[in-house]
């Protein structure tokens, strides 16, 4: 697992005395730093982007850090946005919607959810997996009270978008690992 | 020869076109020297004050002689303009006539953000930082904005300021102030103004958008493209979200957004206001001017 504390990265890349993620160039610099670390042989498949100390994030920064990072590395890695508060959501939700992206996020209380557009069945399946801590396909079908094909399609979608993963223990949400 | 530019007695978003008409942009080459007459001004909000600076900057950037500026006679007005930092920048752009008070040390006031220049990215960081440090409590306690709405306010401010850095091709200013609109609205409001003397929306968007409009390409078309369709001069699909985000934020808090550029003005008008959503054929004015008004939130 690789963890990036955004306030720390901000200090290193933009020498800012503030903890606000604003302006596109700041976002670009932060993403550049993260991508460099990822390219330098990150050891894990889970990348945690830590928002805990972030004051405000604007749309431009959210686009550069969240959306562009997911577009460039989201097919090969699991991303978890950690410490996302409601104040951060306005910008993050907007850029995810704009690009049709989705990502797993954990708020300061520990609650895990998917941010970004997702079909309702897939979202319900995700919530169930969070609550259950993991499940096999039959359990998901049973819980969703839907036909197996629909449940499978939802699980496939979650898996292909790297929102959950599959192992011998079944389907799991990366945050639960 | 000197030509007088009349400044309305009450200079704000409503009377701004009157000032723009008197300014007569674009300025003819050479010849006359301009005299901005603020002697009789009794009130100016951030939008008006920044507009004056933009006009002065446009005159200088067009290569004209430094314009003259007669300062207001009213002592309260003078003192307020000084407190907002107006003369600091006006002194660089105009030849000031009249006694200008020294800038008072900042203390408790309704000024959320003094007139602040926006020239580069670091200025945007400074603006956002200053607003968070000094204004969060005013926004929360006087306007009853929740904490995430306060954060949205700084976000909107950041995006509006970035428009200058990224698109204007020159510098600009930002300022914010709270008012009690007792008579017109019965509530407090915060008025934010962000303006520059740059290329404006039409010229900025021309390379990527004009061909879609052909002969219909205009200031109005450019503003509609930016505000309603998220158009940007960059081909990156992630661009153009700033104004959209501002619009969404203000919509959620019953705020008003107005964007003036060239000869057109577009506005997202809440139900408490009666402005026209789109006006074309206005007196030409350089650059772009954005105004945002957020009213105090009430229980109903």
Offer a quick outline of the entry.
The complex is a heterodimer of chains A (177) and B (300). Chain A has two domains: 1-117, Transcription Regulator spoIIAA (2-Layer Sandwich), CATH 3.30.750; 118-177, Arc Repressor Mutant, subunit A (Orthogonal Bundle). In chain A, 50% of the residues lie in helices and 16% in strands.
Strand and helix map with partners:
The complex is a heterodimer of chains A (177) and B (300).
Chain A: E1 2-5, H1 6-14, H2 24-39, E2 46-50, H3 59-73, E3 78-82, H4 86-99, E4 103-106, E5 112-115, H5 120-132, H6 137-144, H7 148-160, E6 165-167, E7 170-172
Parallel strand pairs in A: 1-2, 2-3, 3-4
Antiparallel strand pairs in A: 4-5, 6-7
Helix pairs in contact in A: 1-2, 2-3, 3-4, 5-7, 6-7
Chain B: E1 2-6, E2 10-11, H1 16-23, E3 33-37, E4 43-44, H2 46-61, E5 68-70, H3 75-83, H4 86-93, E6 95-97, E7 111-118, H5 121-141, H6 147-168, E8 172-181, E9 187-196, H7 200-213, H8 219-229, H9 241-252, E10 256-262, E11 264-268, E12 278-279, E13 285-295
Helix pairs in contact in B: 2-4, 5-6, 6-9, 7-8
Q: How would you describe the overall organization of this protein?
A:
The complex is a heterodimer of chains A (177) and B (300). Chain A has 177 residues and is α/β, with parallel strands linked by helices. Chain A has helices at residues 6-14, 24-39, 59-73, 86-99, 120-132, 137-144, 148-160; strands at 2-5, 46-50, 78-82, 103-106, 112-115, 165-167, 170-172. The model of chain A has no long low-confidence stretch (mean pLDDT 91). Chain B has 300 residues and is of the alpha/beta class. Chain B is built from nine helices and 13 strands. In chain B, strands 7-8-9-13-10-11-12 form a seven-stranded antiparallel sheet, sandwiched between helices. A four-stranded parallel sheet of chain B has the order 1-3-5-6, covered by helices on one side. Chain B is globular, with a radius of gyration of 18 Å. The model of chain B has no long low-confidence stretch (mean pLDDT 90). Chain A binds chain B through residues 14, 16-18, 20, 22-26, 55-60, 63-64, 67-68, 85-87, 89-91, 94-95, 98-99, and chain B through 121, 124-125, 128-129, 132, 147-148, 151-152, 154-155, 158-159, 162, 165-166, 237-239, 241-242, 244-245, 248-249.
């Amino acid at each position: 697992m690789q963890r990036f504390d955004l306030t720390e990265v901000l200090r290193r890349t933009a020498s800012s005395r503030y903890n606000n993620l604003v302006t596109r160039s700041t976002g670009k610099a932060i993403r550049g730093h993260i991508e460099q670390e990822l390219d330098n042989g990150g050891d894990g498949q889970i990348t945690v982007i830590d928002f805990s100390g972030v004051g405000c994030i604007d749309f431009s920064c959210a686009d550069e850090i969240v959306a562009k990072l997911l577009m460039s590395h989201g097919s090969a890695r699991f991303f978890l946005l950690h410490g996302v508060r409601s104040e951060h959501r306005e910008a993050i939700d907007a850029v995810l919607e704009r690009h049709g992206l989705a990502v797993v996020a954990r708020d300061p209380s520990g609650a895990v959810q998917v941010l970004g557009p997702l079909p309702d069945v897939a979202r319900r399946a995700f919530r169930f997996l969070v609550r259950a801590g993991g499940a096999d396909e039959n359990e998901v079908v049973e819980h969703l009270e839907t036909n197996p094909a629909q449940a499978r399609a939802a699980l496939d979608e979650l898996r292909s978008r790297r929102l959950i993963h599959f192992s011998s223990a079944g389907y799991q949400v990366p945050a639960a690992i | 020869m000197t030509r007088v530019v009349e400044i309305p007695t009450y200079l704000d978003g409503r009377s701004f076109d009157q000032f723009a008409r008197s300014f007569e942009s674009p300025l003819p080459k050479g010849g006359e020297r301009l005299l901005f007459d603020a002697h009789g001004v009794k009130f100016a909000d951030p939008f008006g004050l920044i507009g004056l600076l933009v006009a002065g900057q446009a005159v200088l950037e067009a290569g004209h002689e430094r314009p003259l500026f007669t300062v207001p006679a009213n002592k309260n007005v003078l003192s307020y303009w000084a407190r907002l930092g107006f003369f600091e920048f006006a002194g660089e752009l105009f030849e000031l006539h009249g006694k200008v008070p020294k800038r008072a040390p900042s203390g408790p006031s309704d000024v959320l953000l003094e007139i602040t220049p926006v020239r580069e990215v670091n200025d945007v960081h400074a603006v956002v930082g200053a607003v968070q440090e000094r204004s969060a409590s005013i926004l929360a306690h006087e306007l009853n904005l929740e904490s995430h709405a306060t954060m949205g306010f700084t976000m909107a401010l950041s995006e509006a300021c970035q428009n200058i850095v990224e698109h204007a091709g020159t510098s600009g200013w930002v300022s914010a102030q709270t008012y009690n609109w007792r008579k017109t609205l019965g509530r407090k409001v915060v008025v934010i103004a962000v303006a520059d003397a740059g290329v404006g929306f039409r010229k900025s968007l021309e390379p990527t958008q004009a061909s879609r409009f052909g002969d219909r390409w205009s200031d109005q078309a450019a503003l509609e493209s930016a505000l309603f369709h998220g158009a940007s001069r960059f081909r990156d699909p992630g661009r153009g979200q700033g104004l959209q985000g501002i619009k969404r934020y203000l919509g959620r808090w019953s705020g008003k957004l107005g964007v003036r550029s060239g000869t057109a003005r577009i506005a997202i008008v809440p139900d408490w206001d009666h402005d026209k959503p789109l006006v074309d054929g206005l007196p030409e004015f350089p650059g772009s001017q954005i105004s945002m008004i957020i009213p105090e939130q009430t229980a109903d």
